[in-house]
Each structure stands twice: as C-alpha cells, then as structure tokens.
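TA notes. Do not distribute before section.
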Amino acid sequence: MRETTLEIVAPAKWGEGLVSVAEGERIFVDVRLESVHEGILATGEADTEYTGVCGRCLRDIAEPLKVEFQELFAYPGVEATDFEVQDDHVDLETPVRDAIVLSLPFQPVCEPDCPGLDPATGERFTESTGSEPAAPIDPRWAALQDYTQDHDDDAPRPVPGS
C-alpha cells in the first residue's frame, strides 16, 4: 500500500454547465494505492474550486469542492476493463475528472435564499422589503385599474338585474 498527495492542474475545462473547474485550476489529490488480487485499488479525495454563475441571479460564484473516488485498475489480461495498470502505473486523471464533474451542482446558487432576477426588468432583486411585489395586471383588465367608484365603500351597492 502507498499513500501519496499530489498537486496537479486541470489540463482543460472540466464541466459544461453553469459552473466548471477552469483550465489551470489547482487540484489537490490524496490517494491510497493498494495492491489487490485483481489489480490496484485507488481510493482518494480531490479538493479544488469551481467557478461560474448563479443559476438564479447570474452573479459570479466560486466555491470549494471536495470529492471522493475509488477505482480498480485491473492488471492487463483477457478481460476488457475500463481502467488498466500499464507499466506498473495508473492514470488517475479520468477517475478524478469523472468524480469532480459529477459532483458539480446542476443549478448552483450564490446563496441558498438567492432571490434571483426580476422577470419584468431583468435586474437583480435586492434585499427583501417585507412586501410582496405587485402581480402584473392582465392587459385586458388594465382599464379597470383607473376606475373609481362615486360612492362610499360602506354604502349599499345595487344588485345587478334588480
């Protein structure tokens, strides 16, 4: 068994959604390599940072990411496997990349209660003022918005059809 710590840089952008690990981003990998009957078992953790934009307000975000991975690298033989030991070495790039990309959030947010964007103006909502924003009025009913009644609210109203 061998334990080692590696510091590598992402050779390319990892991820295709709103957030990704940028090319050149540092990745710290702690890995334990164990010799087993079938090959070499690699177990470890990778620490890095992803960057991108919030899925609600489009603000730039950068968050740390820590993932675990485990992969069996089989000795070359009759059976075809995804990962093989080659010249007594294992290539950890694919399992580390897969673990990182699969751990990236699909809909990242800058904060858990991010209010997002105003659909009418496209501007970011600011701190909540405690009141609900007015609902948009259907244009067919907009003329009634300016309608004022000539009598008091307490006065009896005529019943239609009487």
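Switch to the second chain here.
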Amino acid sequence: MKRFLLHIAVFVLLFLIIDQIFYVFIAHAPKKEDDQRLQYVLDGQMNKDVIVLGSSRGANNIIAKQLENSTGLATYNLSYRGSNIEFQEFLLKTLLKYNQPPKYLCLVIDNSLEFKTVATLNFRYDRLFPLKNYAYINDYLVSHRKQNVLSKYLNLARVKRKDFIWSPKPVLPINVLTSHGAKINILDADSTLVYKRDIKTYDTAEEEQVKLNAFKSIQQICETKDIHLIYVFPPNFVVFNTSFYKRFKALDVDVNNVMIYNQKEMKYQDYKYFRDESHLNKFGAEVFTKELSDFIKSYK
C-alpha cells in the first residue's frame, strides 16, 4: 500500500513538473505578437488622457500622435480591426481595471453597422488567446466557453498547438502599428472608387440586443467614471447615413458629444484620400484627425 501511494506521489510530482514546462510556451506567446496593446493595458501602462476605441475605422482614420501633438493630451489608439462594440466594451472595462480613467474616450461609430451582426465585425478573441498567461484573460475565456475550465488550474489545459511555434508571427503592412497604436495606411489611393449617394433606410429589426446593451454599458461607465465620451463619425466614401444617425440619437445620446466629419469638405468625396470605401488613407486621416483635434480642444 505504501509503495502504491509512493508511486502516486511520484506521478503527481512529475505531472506537476511537466505542467510547469508547458507554462514556458504560454508565457512566451505574448512576445510573438507585434500588437501588444492589450498587454500594455493589462500591465497598467495605458494611463492616457485620450483613448480611441473602434474598429478599423478608428485604427485607420485617427492618427493618435497627431491628435496628441495638437491637443497636448497624451493619446493612444486602442481600435482593433474587425472589432465590434462588445469587444470595445470589454477593452474599456479592462482598461479601467488596470489603469486610471482617461479624460476623454473617443468611440468611433461604424455607420450603419454598429448594432448589427455582420461578418466583418466580431469579438476579437484572437487578441485574447496569446495573453492567457494572465489569469484575468484566461478566466474570461473560460467564462465564455473559449477555454477549458481545467485551464484555471493546469497549464497543460491552457496551451494550444500554436503556442509551440516559437518564432514571431509575420505582420502584414496593413497591420503595422504606429508608436501611438494607430494603423495608418500609406498605400496608394484606389482610383476605381465611385462616391455613392444612395443609402439604404436603416432597419432597427436587424439590430442585436447584446450590442445595444454594450453601447449602453459604455455610456454608463463613462458617466460613472467622469469620462468625457465623444461619439466619432468618420467619413466613408458614401453620403452620410442620416437614417442611422436618427436612430443613433434616440439611444440616449447627448448630441453635444457627437463629432461628425465635415460633410462640406470636398476631400471626403475625392478618392485620393481613401484606401477603400470605408477607410481613409494617410492623407485623409490627417484631414479628419485635425477635425477631431479641433473638436476636443473646444471641450478644453
């Protein structure tokens, strides 16, 4: 019996030693990522005056360094390509858990997709998986059934096949980050773009309640934390969707906090300032960022 118990003890000890070896791969995973912005948030290194949240329209259309230089406010862009309002709510909650509240939150609105389910806008779980060495992140993944509950206790349950690849992940030019977190595109403009003047009437039946709840949550968090919430509407290469904006204003929005691009600015109807229909290139981003800077300075 004693020998049996000894064997069990040795087995458990060896298992725990081997389990610790797997942690090496988990701990190394964040170092392979070019985009380490969420890690900065978790490490309490995101104490800024201005935070920009949004999808690719936020990442591509707002130059955080230019905004900082113009306003004199420390600025960082935490917009993620392909992210939805639920992910942006998660980012805000995480930011406030580990950092001081910003003075201003610029929430970039996807007109007219903000509250709909679309294939191009999702919760970016892929940005969480490399950071599962943080208990906060792993617990979140477990609670959303993206990670095995055993991962709370065993490294073996956390590690994935991709974690065994030691080399850094390749980065596409479109995903290269600036010093202040933006992804400013310097590629040539698309000369085939045609400015669209026809828009569809916004249909509230296509909205998803969980996204409306996330939007409301962001409003409430900013009010509680005394954060100036600015709703930002950057230009698309299409006429402004007033049908969506009418619905947007009905969601308990203070119109004094809404920044809409200058619809009389003819550069926003010139393909030379756009990468594609939904995103400005570097030259367009410079024009729009100046508008946003002036808006924030009017607050100050």
